[in-house]
Design goal:
Order of helices and strands of chain A: HHHHHHHHHHHEHEEHHEHEEHHHHHHH
Oligomer: homodimer
Strand content of chain A: 5-15%
Largest sheet of chain A: 3 strands, mixed
CATH architecture of the largest domain in chain A: Orthogonal Bundle
Strand order of the largest sheet of chain A: 1-2-3
Largest interface: A-B, 126 and 128 residues
Number of strands of chain A: 6
C-alpha cells in the first residue's frame, strides 16, 4: 500500500470519525490495514480520536498494534489496563516485543503480569528483561532455528521441512553444539545450493562473530550496517546461544539514534509523541525554557555591566544582537557537525585536534569576511568609523569562540558522560552570547571612554 | 568485530601512519578489515591521511570500499581518476552501487565510462541511471532470482540447486510470467517447509504489492519498515519486473533521511564530510552565515526604531535579549517537533489545526509561567514595576508567536515545495526576534512616553 493511498485512507477515516461511522472504521482497521499501518494512524491522531480508534480494534490485533506504537503512546494506552488485559493482548508477541511493552508498565502491574504468565513464557521474558532495553540482550528474540554441525545437508533440509513454518526474518539456521554453544551460522541461500551429502560443518559460516548480549544497541546497528546482516545470533558470556537479533528491530534503533540528536538539541525526547496532550507537553517544555532562561539572564547580566557605555552610545544596543547571533549560528554549525560525527563514530580523540584547527580557521576566515560586511553597514548606518572597527573585531573573536566551543563542548561533555546533543546547544549559546556581548561592549567601553 | 576493537584498530593505524609503517597498514587494510570498515576509517581521517590510506588499498578492494563512502568523500577520490580507472574498480559492484558511484563523476567522465563499458553492463546501469537516485528505480539491483508459477516446489528446489550461489539478501524468489510480468514472491522460508509436489502458484505470496520504480525512496523506506521486508520486487509501469530493492540499501535511506533534518536545520548538507578541507567548508558555511546576517540586520533595524526609548531607559537594552531568546527557544521546540512529525508522516492537513491549537495553548501557559518569573527578577533588579509588566506581556506574546510560527512555517514551506528543515529555523528566528523586540520596545515606548 503506497503512502499516498494511505494518506487518503487517513483523510477518509478522519471524515468517518467526524460523522461517527464507526462500522466502516472498524472494518478498515481490522481488515484493510496491517497492524503497523493502524499504529501509524493512531500515532497521528489527536488524543480523543486515538482512544476511539483503539477501542475499535479487535482484541486479537491489539498486541501487534501496541508493539508498533512509540513508547509514549504505548504507555498512555497501557495505563488504562490491568495485568490480565495486558497479558491477553501481548501473549502472542515475539519475546523482545513483549518485553518492550512490559517495560512501559508501572512496576506493580509488571510484577503482577509476570506472576500470572505461564512458566515457560515468563522464563523467556525474564531473560530478555534481565538485559537493559538498549543492549543486544534487550533487542533479541528467542525464536531461533538451530541445528547440529555433524548432520548432512539432506538431513538438515528434512529437519526443516518438519516445521510447519519458520519464524519471519530467518535467513540462516544457527549451528550449535549439544550444549547449545554457538558454533556458526548456515545461510539458507547456502543450504539451498549445497551438495545434499556434505555436512553442515563443511558449509557453515564462522567468520561472523556472534553478538554478546551486553553489547550496546548502537554498536549492534553498526555491525548490521557494516556487514549487511539480516539476522545475527546473540550469546551469553559463556558462548551459549540466547537468541537472535533481526534487522527490523535494528532499523528501529537506527531511526531512534538518528532522531535522538535532532530532538535532543531542541530539548525534546526522541520518543516524544507528536500529539501528546497539553499538560504533558507544557510540563516537559517548561523545564527546557527554564534552563534557557538562566542562559538568557547570564547574557543580560553581561550587558548590565556596560549600562553606562550603552547610555552614551545607543547604537551599541542596536548592533549588539548581531555579534551574539553570528557567533551562535557559526557555533551551532560546528556543534551539529561534531555531534553528528560522534553519532556516526567518526569523531574521536585521535582526529579531534585536526577538527578543532579546521573549525577555528574556518571560523576566522568567515569571521573576517562577514566582519567586513557588517563593519561597512554599521559605518554607513551610524556614520561612525569606531563602531565599525569594534563590531568587526568582536565578530571575528566571537566566530572563533563559537568554533572552539562547538568542537570542544561535545568532546568534553561526552568524556564526562553527559549527552552532547542535550546540553551542547544551551552551553554553546551561553558562551557565544557572553563572549559576543562582552567583547563588543567591552571594546566599546575602551574606545569610547 | 566489535566497534571497541575497531577503535583500537584505528588508534593503532593512526600511530602506524605517524611512524610511516606502511607495510603493516597495508596488511590491516587488505586482510583484517572488511571494506565497510576500511571506508569508515577513511571517512574519519583528515584529508592527507585519507589519500595515504586509499593508496594502500589493493585494487580489487577499491570498488567495495568506494561504494561504502559518503557522497562527498567519493567525489573527492573519483576526481583524481579517469574513466578507465573508475571502470576497473567498479566493474564488480552491484548495479545500483555502480550507478551511485557513476553519478558522482563529472559529466564527461561519466559519458566516457558508459562508452567503454561492455554492452550488457551498460544496459543495466543505464536502466538504473534512468531513474532519479532518490526513487525505487535508483535504489534497485538487477540480481533477481525468478521462477515460473506453474512449476512444482521440487522443480523449484532443483532449479535453485543448479545455481553456484544465490545473491546476498535473497529471502524470496520472484514469481514472473513468461513475459517477465510480476506475479508474486515465494519466500525461501515457505519454499523450505512446503510439500514438494504442490506448485509454486499454490504457495506464493501475492498480498505484498510490488514497488513502482518511480516511488520516492522515503516511501520505500516506510514500506520496508511497516511490512518488515528484507527485499522487495520493483516493477515498471507495465508491471514488468525490473529488479529488487534490499534492506541494506533502505537502511542507508533511513539513516540519510533522519540525518537530513538535523543537518539542514544548521544549514549543513546531510552528506557533509566531517573532515572536509578548510576552503570547501568555509565556502559552504559562508552562505549560511550570510543568510542569517540578513535576519540579524532585520532585528537590528527593529531595535533601531526605538533608539530614543532605549536612550531614556537603558534597562531595556539589558532585558530585550531575554524576550527574543525565550521566543526563539520555544519556537524551535515546536518547529523541531513539527519537522520530525512531517518526516515520519505524522503531520498533515487533517491534524494540523489540532496541533496548532495545542502548541499555542502550551506556548501561552509556559509564556505565563516564565513571564512571572522574569517580571519578578526584572522588578527586583531595576526597582521598576513598569518594566516588569512590559517584559511579562511581551514574553507571553512572543511565546505564542513562536508556537504559531513553529507550526505554520513548516506546513507552509512544505506546501510550496521548500524544505522546512533548511529554511524553517532562519525564518523562525527572524519572526521571534522581530516580534520580541518590537513588542517589548513598542510597549516600553507607550508606557514610558
Amino acid at each position: 500500500m503506497s503512502t499516498s493511498a494511505q494518506r487518503t485512507q487517513f483523510e477518509k477515516l478522519a471524515d468517518a470519525l467526524d460523522s461517527g461511522e464507526f462500522q466502516q472504521i472498524r472494518f478498515v482497521l481490522n481488515h484493510s490495514l496491517r497492524p503497523a499501518e493502524v499504529a501509524r494512524l493512531i500515532e497521528k491522531s489527536p488524543p480523543k480520536e486515538r482512544q476511539i480508534l483503539w477501542n475499535l480494534i479487535n482484541t486479537d490485533l491489539e498486541g501487534e498494534v501496541l508493539q508498533d506504537l512509540g513508547d509514549d503512546v504505548q504507555a498512555e494506552i497501557l495505563s488504562r489496563m490491568d495485568a490480565t488485559e495486558v497479558l491477553a493482548i501481548t501473549e502472542s508477541l515475539d519475546t523482545d516485543d513483549m518485553a518492550d511493552v512490559i517495560q512501559q508498565l508501572p512496576n506493580t502491574v509488571m510484577k503482577e503480569l509476570l506472576r500470572i504468565m505461564d512458566k515457560q513464557n515468563r522464563k523467556r521474558v525474564e531473560q530478555v528483561l534481565s538485559y537493559p532495553e538498549d543492549t543486544a540482550g534487550g533487542l533479541m528474540n528467542t525464536d531461533t532455528v538451530t541445528i547440529r554441525p555433524d548432520i548432512s545437508v539432506e538431513t538438515a533440509l528434512r529437519y526443516i521441512r518438519r516445521h510447519k513454518e519458520i519464524p519471519e526474518m530467518t535467513d540462516s539456521l544457527i549451528v550449535v553444539s549439544r550444549k547449545d554453544s554457538y558454533i556458526g551460522i548456515l545461510p539458507l541461500t547456502k543450504l539451498l545450493v549445497s551438495d545434499p551429502n556434505i555436512t553442515v560443518r563443511e558449509i557453515m559460516v564462522t567468520e561472523i562473530e556472534p553478538i554478546s548480549a551486553t553489547m550496546p544497541d548502537n554498536e549492534v546497528a553498526v555491525l548490521f550496517e557494516q556487514h549487511d546482516l539480516v539476522s545475527a545470533p546473540v550469546i551469553d558470556d559463556d558462548g551459549r546461544l540466547l537468541g537472535r537479533i533481526t534487522i527490523d528491530d535494528v532499523v528501529d534503533v537506527i531511526r531512534e539514534d538518528a532522531d535522538h540528536s535532532l530532538m535532543s538539541m531542541a530539548g525534546l525526547d526522541e520518543d516524544e509523541d507528536t500529539f501528546a496532550p497539553v499538560m504533558k507537553t507544557t510540563r516537559r517544555r517548561a523545564l527546557w525554557l527554564g534552563i534557557n532562561l538562566i542562559t538568557a539572564f547570564v547574557a543580560s547580566a553581561v550587558i548590565g555591566l556596560f549600562e553606562e557605555t550603552i547610555d552614551k552610545v545607543v547604537a551599541l544596543a542596536v548592533l549588539m544582537p548581531i555579534v551574539a547571533s553570528m557567533g551562535g549560528i557559526a557555533g551551532s554549525q560546528t556543534l551539529t557537525l561534531v555531534i553528528r560525527g560522534q553519532a556516526l563514530g567518526h569523531v574521536e580523540k585521535s582526529n579531534a585536534s585536526w577538527l578543532l584547527s579546521r573549525e577555528m580557521i574556518v571560523g576566522a576566515m568567515n569571521g573576517l569576511l562577514w566582519a567586513l560586511v557588517v563593519a561597512a553597514v554599521a559605518i554607513v548606518w551610524f556614520q561612525d568609523t569606531t563602531i565599525g572597527i569594534i563590531i568587526a573585531l568582536s565578530i571575528v573573536i566571537n566566530l572563533i569562540a563559537g568554533a572552539m566551543a562547538g568542537t570542544l563542548l561535545p568532546l568534553g561533555l561526552k568524556a564526562v558522560g553527559i549527552d552532547p546533543a542535550l546540553a551542547g546547544s544551551v552551553l554553546l549559546t551561553t558562551i557565544t552570547d557572553v563572549v559576543g556581548f562582552f567583547t563588543f561592549l567591552g571594546l566599546a567601553t575602551m574606545f569610547y571612554s
